[in-house]
Model the fold of this input.
Amino acid sequence: MKKFHISWQSLLIGIVWFAVTTFYFISYQSGTLSGSITVPRIISWVYDLFGFMAGTIVQWILSLIFIIGSIRPVKVDKNSDSYEEE
Done:
């Protein structure tokens, strides 16, 4: 069985980022999003560059990359009981 190392901080940040982006998207689609929302400056650049819908999709993709990147396989040495990261 293949072992994995999970970077919990990166995983948590990726999940929160994905959830907040999803919340903004649902609020936008249902019309309950107010005229201005508070987001970090770099994310506002994404929204300004791509528009709200495409910016949301870009953020989903980036957050999924963040989530997937937080789970890495571990190289197992068959001659010892310990393991080390690749």
User: Anything to note?
Assistant: The mean pLDDT is 84.
